[in-house]
Amino acid sequence: MPANSWKLSSVQKKMQTITINNSENINTSLFHWVFPDEEKITNRFPSFHYPPAVWKNNNQSYKLNYFNISTNTYFLLDTDSFPDVLNFSMDFYNAENANILELANLAHLILKFGYQTEDFELFKLKSIKGNQKINTLLKIRTLPYQIKKYLAYKNPSFKILNILAKFTEPLINITESFIVENNPSLSEFRSFITNLFDFKYDIATSINEYDEEYFRQLFYNKNPVYTEFIGKLNPLLNMGKNIFIENSDNFETDTLRITFTINSPEDYQDILEKLDRSKNTINEIYKLLEEYDLR
Asked: Phi and psi for 288 in degrees, rounded to 5?
């Protein structure tokens, strides 16, 4: 049966204040699904008002919140129901706004206690169902911290996550250094990891981190479709002296930037006339982008 959403009134009567000796073993990590830890906890709960909650199950105590607080006093959540406990935790940390890494941590926790993600309304709300998506979530939990932090802030689609889940360790290392060096936009990241996966067998074994020039040459020189596209595009970009057309993200978007330089009012008038005559050229550029599925 699906777990009921946690409501404070439903568990208030089950909570009592207890003292736990420091010598008693308390698991402080298993229910710590919030990510990145310090920033999320600080943003959601800027001050400490109440003792942390704890759940006891099979002679093991689990800390459920305020993980950065050290204390001997706790609220005991007196229940045998794991769904009640997890729904308490999810509601406490406003899981409806959970990022993709938090969802991955929650999926891991749910499976560890023998339940399925479809037992919880949150995963229905997020349209996360099926073994492929769950397996992808579990795999991204094992990625290096810098990649996970990037994913947590960007919340990419499963199309991107599915590619990452297939990466070998060398590709993961390259991806991590790419993120650290570039802090890429999501479109730049999608383009990079797609190319990285497509050309994985062409990458020299000596390459274990991001090298801008190396990968630029690899991706563009070995991609016949891109080479063909650039060959058709370059003549169209020549709109005349002192007029420049560029796209800043390797045509991940269809945004063009047109700039020009002038040295006199006459130059300015000349530029305007050239731009007016170039209407058909702009149309041709966008037709070409459509032809290569770039807009």
From this structure: -65, -40
66 is a domain residue? no
Question: Is residue 10 situated within a structural domain?
Answer: no
Range 24-29, long-range pairs (CB < 8 A, 24+ positions): 24/61, 25/60, 25/61, 26/54, 26/61, 26/62, 26/63, 27/60, 27/61, 27/62, 27/63, 28/63, 28/67
Q: How many domains does the chain have?
A: 1
Residue 64 corresponds to which tokens in the numbers above? Answer: 């459920």
pLDDT, one tens digit per residue, over 3-55 is 434 444 455 556 677 777 665 688 989 999 999 865 555 555 545 567 888 99
**125 CB burial (10 A radius; 0-12, 13-18, 19+):** exposed
Domain that holds residue 277: 224-291
Q: What CA–CA distance (Å, rounded) separates 156 from 31?
A: 24
* pTM exceeds cut of 0.90: no
Give the number of C-alpha atoms closer than 13 A to the C-alpha of residue 141, restricted to the C-beta side. Answer: 16
Question: Mapped to the 3 state alphabet, what secondary structure does the chain carry?
Answer: CCCCCCCHHHHHHHEEEEECCCCCCEECCCCCCCCCHHHHHHHHCCCCCCCCEEEEECCEEEECCCCCCCCCEEEEECCCCHHHHHHHHHHHCCHHHCCHHHHHHHHHHHHHCCCCHHHCHHHHHCCCCCHHHHHHHHHHCCCCHHHHHHHHHHCCCHHHHHHHCCCCHHHHHHHHHHHHHHCCCHHHHHHHHHHHHHCHHHCCCCCCCCCHHHHHHHHHHCCHHHHHHHHHHHHHHCCCCCEEEECCCCCCCCCCEEEECCCCHHHHHHHHHHHHHCHHHHHHHHHHHHHCCCC
